[in-house]
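Researcher: Quick test of sequence recovery. Tokens follow.
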């Protein structure tokens, strides 16, 4: 079971998710701390769609992009709020390719108020899947 790719990917996602959670817990972050939070979001988001991709491939689906991973994951009820996931993808792409302090502040608030909850739900869902899979293997 340890050679299942999505399990390995979850370990990395778990680490990045916990770093994002820690960054977002800062009460009044400086601009540098906000930038760090955005960077942790970018990493966690990247790993989240790759986790979905690996899991979907494990189930027999073919996935070639973040958008396809989100749409297919939503269609099999791995995700809720598919539209918000697509918004998060657009904002992740925006922050990766440009830096504007106003946009950064807006995206930071979306991460804190909306996107973190998506990642947390995915994190919890995979904890359930992994726990269920390990029980079936025993």
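Model:
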């Amino acid at each position: 079971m340890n050679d299942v790719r999505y399990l390995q990917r979850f370990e990395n996602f778990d680490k990045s998710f916990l770093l994002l959670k820690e960054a977002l817990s800062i009460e009044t972050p400086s601009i540098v701390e906000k930038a760090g939070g955005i960077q942790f979001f970018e990493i966690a988001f990247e790993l989240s769609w790759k986790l979905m991709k690996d899991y979907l491939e494990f189930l027999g689906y073919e996935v070639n992009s973040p958008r396809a991973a989100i749409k297919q994951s939503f269609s099999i009820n791995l995700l809720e709020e598919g539209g918000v996931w697509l918004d998060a993808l657009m904002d992740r792409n925006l922050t990766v390719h440009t830096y504007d302090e106003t946009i950064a502040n807006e995206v930071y608030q979306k991460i804190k108020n909306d996107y973190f909850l998506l990642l947390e739900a995915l994190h919890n869902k995979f904890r359930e899947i992994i726990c269920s899979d390990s029980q079936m293997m025993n």
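The radius of gyration is 15 Å.
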